[in-house]
Amino acid sequence: MKLLHIDSSISGAESVSRQLSASIVIRFKDTLPGLGVSYRDLVADPVPHQSPATRFAKLKSLYEAGALDGKIGEVVAAAMRGGAPVDASAQDEVAATNVALDEFLAADIVVIGAPMYNFGIPSQLKAWIDCLAAPGKTFSYTATGVEGLAGSKRVIVASSRGGFYSAPSPMAFMDHQETFLTSFFGFIGVTDITFVRAEGVNQGPEQRQRALESALAEIAVLKAA
Ligand SMILES: Cc1cc2nc3c(=O)[nH]c(=O)nc-3n(C[C@H](O)[C@H](O)[C@H](O)COP(=O)(O)O)c2cc1C
């Protein structure tokens, strides 16, 4: 069994989400003998943001899979005749995107350190998620609508936020961090998603400690299956 560990906090050793995601990985290592773990720090080792090259590569794969027809198919075909972005940096971007996607596809369990930044997720994490949105790999278009293809994976999110956003907080409507992650992973078919949450960590040292202890207590009893 393989686990992919992702971190995205810019706060280094002070990071709450990094502490929680590392604890989750230790918990899984303890409970799943032989577990293979790979790690990507999206701050130290970022993936490229979307670009004309990565967009072209995605359209091309859709076109080759016969998933584009009508006007859009003509547009893509014309774009390909007009020449793909072939310079070395464009090729590197597409390759790096595919490496991130392959790392995700190879994993059975994905542990994601995901702080709330400005009510959403860090842009580094968003760029990684953009790599995963791959037609034909993580979702497909069918006659009855979109079908997620990543349904066999389990995702555990180590969520940290300075304020309180869980219901019944009046701030709940401003949570575009956990709600976004739930929506995206749901879109690609993941139904087994768990949030381990430390909230209110910027509301004084006592609350920070309480939030951390409560999240670590949840991790201590996290079931491997
Ligand atoms: C750039 C930045 C933006 C932030 N935006 C929010 C926010 O919108 N809402 C909030 O409650 N906390 C916000 N915070 C506080 C973080 O969510 C909190 O410090 C959390 O612990 C960050 O996770 P980390 O410690 O793993 O970096 C922000 C922190 C940073 C550095």
UniProtKB/TrEMBL annotation:
InterPro entries: Flavodoxin_fold, Flavoprotein-like_sf, FMN-dep_NADH:Q_OxRdtase_AzoR1, NADH:quinone_OxRdtase_FMN_depd
Top EC class of this enzyme: oxidoreductase
Keyword Flavoprotein: yes
Stored Pfam families: Flavodoxin_2
Claim: RNA-binding is one of the keywords in the record: no
EC number: 1.6.5.-, 1.7.1.17
Catalysed reactions listed for this entry: 2 a quinone + NADH + H(+) = 2 a 1,4-benzosemiquinone + NAD(+); N,N-dimethyl-1,4-phenylenediamine + anthranilate + 2 NAD(+) = 2-(4-dimethylaminophenyl)diazenylbenzoate + 2 NADH + 2 H(+)
Molecular function, one GO term: oxidoreductase activity, acting on NAD(P)H, quinone or similar compound as acceptor
Signal peptide, first to last residue: none
Keywords annotated in UniProt: Flavoprotein, FMN, NAD, Oxidoreductase
Domain Flavodoxin-like fold: 1-220
Binding positions for FMN per the UniProt entry: 9, 15-17, 116-119, 160-163
Essential cofactor(s): FMN
Record's cofactor remark: Binds 1 FMN per subunit.
Family: Belongs to the azoreductase type 1 family.
Subunit structure: Homodimer.
Function comment: Quinone reductase that provides resistance to thiol-specific stress caused by electrophilic quinones.
Entry protein name: FMN dependent NADH:quinone oxidoreductase
Organism: Caballeronia mineralivorans PML1(12)
